[in-house]
Design brief:
Catalytic activity: dTDP-4-dehydro-6-deoxy-alpha-D-glucose = dTDP-4-dehydro-beta-L-rhamnose
CATH architecture: Sandwich
Number of strands: 13
GO biological process, one term: dTDP-rhamnose biosynthetic process
Function: Catalyzes the epimerization of the C3' and C5'positions of dTDP-6-deoxy-D-xylo-4-hexulose, forming dTDP-6-deoxy-L-lyxo-4-hexulose.
Family: Belongs to the dTDP-4-dehydrorhamnose 3,5-epimerase family.
Strand order of the largest sheet: 1-2-10-7-12-5
Number of domains: 1
CATH topology: Jelly Rolls
Radius of gyration: 16 Å
Distance between the termini: 33 Å
Bound molecules: dtdp-4-keto-L-rhamnose
Shape: globular
Order of helices and strands: EEEEHEEEEEEEEEH
EC number: 5.1.3.13
Length: about 180
């Protein structure tokens, strides 16, 4: 298991060691001690989530505010997604900056999304199963979001707009400038 830097302060990628043989593959997907070493954070993950999506499904950009903010450790168990994060911590040197990485069942990469980041992903394969750990519970009243195609953020989702499948809720999200962070 190794830690790979991203340009956004506090966020990093985890690459597990993958063992391959005639049966398939094996890899460790989470180790508490390694995670603490990589993140420097001693806070337990308290909720695991999973979603399944078809090609073109875009979920995001989401975050929870204040005391209910969540850090997430995300990965694609099946298929491939483009995962996108935006640093929305006003006091951060990388405030407003974004980073994206392809996560797949081939590269086995995981992305650590710190508290104070907006997060989203789009499915690039026919189907994806996306799994993530959260260090705070889901709280509907703390949910916030930013519209995926905000012109200021100018995120590249790699697919044509006509291919995207987005929930009504996500299509109504505000621009970055108007979002209550
Ligand atoms: C996220 C979440 C949703 N739900 C419910 C609310 C709703 O009825 C249904 C679907 O919720 P959503 O449409 O918000 O699901 P989704 O769009 O997949 O939301 C997720 O998107 C990605 C990008 C994230 O970063 C996650 O933190 C989360 O916000 O599931 C829970 O019960 N617990 C949860 O933790």
């Amino acid at each position: 298991m190794e830690r790979i830097e991203t340009p956004l302060a506090g966020s990093f990628i985890i690459r597990p060691r993958v063992f391959e043989d005639e049966r398939g593959i094996f890899c460790e997907t989470f180790k508490d001690d390694k995670f603490k070493e990589f993140s420097g954070i001693d806070r337990p993950f308290v909720q695991d989530n999973q979603s399944a999506s078809t090609y073109g499904v875009l979920r995001g950009l989401h975050f929870q505010r204040g005391e209910m903010s969540q850090s997430k450790l995300v990965r694609a168990v099946v298929g491939e997604v483009l995962d996108v994060i935006v640093d929305i911590r006003r006091d951060s040197p990388t405030f407003g900056q974004s980073f994206s990485v392809r996560l797949s069942d081939k590269n086995h990469l995981q992305l650590y999304v710190p508290r104070g980041f907006a997060h989203g992903f789009v499915t690039l394969s026919p189907r994806s199963v996306f799994a993530y750990k959260c260090d705070n519970y889901y709280d509907k009243s703390s949910e916030g979001g930013i519209i995926y195609n905000d012109p200021e953020l100018a995120l590249d989702w790699e697919l044509d707009a006509s291919e995207l499948i987005i929930s009504e809720k996500d299509l109504l999200l505000p621009k970055f400038q108007d979002a209550s962070l």
